Amino acid sequence: MNTRDTLKINAKGHLEIGGADCVELAQNFGTPLYVFDEEYIRRMMRVYRDTLQREYGENSLVLYASKAFSCQAIYRIADEENIGVDVVSGGELYTALQAGFPAKNMYMHGNNKLDYEIGEALDAGIGCIVADAYSEIDKIDAEAAKRGIVQPILLRINPGIEAHTHAFVQTATTDSKFGFSVSDGTAERVTAYAMQKKNVRLDGYHCHIGSQIFEKQSFVLAVEKCMDFAADMQNRLAFKLKTLNLGGGFGIWYTDEDRKISAEEYAEYAKALVAAVKRKAQESGMELPFLVIEPGRSIIGEAGITLYTVGAIKDIPAVKKYVAVDGGMFDNPRYALYQSKYTPVLANRANEEATEIVTIAGKCCESGDIIAANVALPKAQSGDILAILSTGAYNYSMAMNYNRNKIPPCVLVNEGVADYIVKPQSYADINRNDVIPARLAKKTK
Ligand code: LLP
Is the pTM here over 0.70, yes or no? Predict the structure, then answer.
């Protein structure tokens, strides 16, 4: 059903994830519910870690891009699997630190890190900050000087690769808000600038060409451009590349329009990157850099599903049939943002053939609140448990309280055992920071 054996249909005809019956999960934890298969997550972390170690050696590190799904438990898993993480905000940094994740194995990204985020990262002893603006370099330098340290940094460069993916998730084309462009000399100028700073140590470069990319060649091309640029900087500025971070971006299966990529094939992506780095280093006589990759979606995306209960059904004859669920864009805004496609499964009748085309709608007061448009499903009835597959990445992490809906809880399953990793929100949680100024206080009449 998905690319690994995370999902099965059991003897009762129910969908199972990680050995747990989805109908029972819905009964025990309620819906909407995010469910994650721990084994899948660990397996993917190991695939990348072991491939880099085997093909490149100790001089490498896999970072889990935690923007895909951030909560304390995921940082514990990453730490247990001996990989690093990337964080993109003070909030992710804080969450990782609360989980006891070692700061030295963290990289911090972001195109506009706030002053206090830089301060928090330095105070924590973060391994590396990826700078994306002159002002950031200045700030890191000044804050590091205050603390009497020299902070390792990378520069985010933009190699100008156009990856084949949805335009909104492309992050390295020349008009991107991310990165210093290689083609117009900006990246060279900022290299020279960072090299003369006393309290930052420029270790190298970072690039990330986009997300949900399947073409291996796009990644290889990015490596080539980065390595060519580094060789150029070695010749022109005597800059020695110590670290090269190639970002993430490997695609996953959402629907049968996407290729199913096996664990072995993900290893092939990593191998292709390694081969390109080695080849380019040899060609230009550079030493092999410390090599970093930071996949997010491909580690967590297919590990997760969302369970909903079907509610209202609206059949507009000869037009459309809406099947509404008890979640919506507040737990998965990806259709609203990117017209993303998903595969639904009726978890309580998983063996039944699809007989109709429906649109799965959420419960928000907004027409664009759709989870999946025009999808095939058996005839759904109110009370059915509907699973949406491949929601592990960029769903919970982009969830919100629109219409003051409660962000669903997350459970982690392992061999049939399910535990909360994010507890349910209450209305009181949503109201926690609301304040009624004295002048608006309810007057007794
Ligand atoms: N490194 C950097 C610097 C990134 O910007 C990203 C993703 C990653 C790594 C991880 O990429 P992944 O392996 O997950 O593709 N919200 C969008 C995705 C935005 C991705 C942003 N950057 C979505 O829902 O599709």
Answer: yes
